[in-house]
Design brief:
The chain is of the alpha+beta class. It has six helices and five strands. It has a five-stranded antiparallel sheet with strand order 4-3-2-1-5. Helix 1 packs across helix 2. The model has no long low-confidence stretch (mean pLDDT about 90).
């Protein structure tokens, strides 16, 4: 996982690969990466904490900070959340590109029924609909959900 995510950061920041092309290229490179190369890549990239999809990059010892496992699909109408990470799946990434949702966007759930969730994206002001299948692959942080789970 560490090698894969480091390569995704490198490909995007240094070689300007598009967001949706990172996974397949990183998949090839991760298997040819030695521990020494991964450590040098990590240093070169100034020790990134997350990959372009928001996934945490473990350190050289495999330690990492746990992230939210709360899917966007759980957000109830009227609740706000921040997009923390997304699954590295080409259909989902393509969809997010089309509707212009990015990591760290704040969203407000307008409706959550009929097979999807309708959101207002604060950065753009747009109202968008995300099908349930895609909403399961988008992970959020939300004060309301965190408080409810305590």
């Amino acid at each position: 996982m560490r090698n894969h995510r480091l390569w995704e950061v490198f490909l995007m920041t240094q070689l300007l690969y598009p967001y949706d092309a990172l996974h397949s290229e990183a998949e090839l490179l991760e298997h040819a990466t030695t521990d020494d190369m991964a450590n040098r890549l990590d240093y070169f990239l100034k020790r990134p904490k997350t990959c372009p999809h928001g996934g945490v990059i473990p350190d050289a010892n495999g330690n990492y900070v746990h992230q939210s496992t709360t899917p966007l699909a759980d957000l109830q109408p009227g609740a706000k959340a921040t997009v923390e990470r997304v699954m590295d799946e080409s259909n989902l990434l393509d969809f997010l590109s089309v509707i212009d949702i990015k990591l760290n966007d704040e969203v407000l759930a307008v409706d959550n029924s009929n097979g999807g969730i309708t959101l207002r994206v604060s950065r753009t002001g747009k109202v968008v609909m995300v099908k349930s299948e895609f909403a399961q692959g988008i992970f959020i942080t939300s004060p309301e959900i965190i408080a409810a789970n305590k």
